[in-house]
Amino acid sequence: MTFGGETTILFVPGLRDHVEDHWQTHAARAIPGAVTVAPLAADRLSRAGQVAALDAALRAITGEVVIVAHSAGCLTTVHWALAPTRPIRAALLVAPADIESPLPAGYPEPPALKDGGWFPIPRKPLPFPALVVASRNDPLAAFDRVVGFADAWGAALHDAGEVGHLNPAAGYGPWPALFGLLDRLDDHARSAVL
Questions:
Q1: Are 123 and 149 in contact (CB under 8 A)?
Q2: Exposure letters 169-184 (e unless 16+ CB within 10 A, then b)
Q3: Residue 10: in which H helix or E strand, if any?
């Protein structure tokens, strides 16, 4: 991973918060100085609450920050980016959930997400370089929808192949490819500022 030692990697989990065998949990332990956004104590479906938690984590970090978000954490990040409170070096947005389409059983239903303030998904260019990781068989987002999000956000796209939702249910656990993607994101961020 080529981001400098002064750069903090900030993990932004999805609405299920911290999952012990999730790749984000494994990576946060492996990356020195990494930080994870604290889970909400109540009303996890509140977009405003999730954005405020992300903002609090960002304000507590000095120096450069690279966001690594997963699922609804990607949506938290793009909502935060509508009114950013500090510069971000770059963001890796992994398997963003398409909450505008019906989600599988066991996930929040559209009325609860609407009440939580999640609709619509922002489609404005992000004010920082980003790389979106898309799965070809993600049960929470069709590949073409994620391609459309990446385009609207002005982000580069990485086709990860058939990796499900990139969560423990899909076999991720440790995800070694993350570190190569962070290197690619670093290259993308460097070229964006030249």
A1: yes
A2: ebebeebeebeebbee
A3: strand 8-12
pLDDT tens by residue, 10-37 = 999 998 767 889 999 999 999 999 999 9
* Token digits of residue 180: 């190569």
> Per-residue pLDDT tens for 124-141?
999 999 999 999 999 999
Residue 1 has pLDDT above 60, yes or no: no
Report yes or no on whether pTM surpasses 0.90. Answer: yes
The CB-side HSE value for 126 (13 A sphere, CA atoms) comes to 31
Q: How buried is 188 (Cβ within 10 angstroms: 0-12 exposed, 13-18 middle, 19+ buried)?
A: middle
The DSSP code sequence of 28-63 is: HHHSTT-EEPPPPSS-TT-HHHHHHHHHHHHHT--S
Long-range contacts of 172-179 (CB under 8 A, 24+ apart): 172/22, 172/23, 173/21, 173/22, 173/23, 173/26, 174/23, 174/26, 175/23, 175/26, 175/27, 178/23, 178/27, 178/68, 178/92, 179/1
The helix/strand/coil state of 133 is: strand
Residue 153 · residue 92 · CB < 8 Å:
no
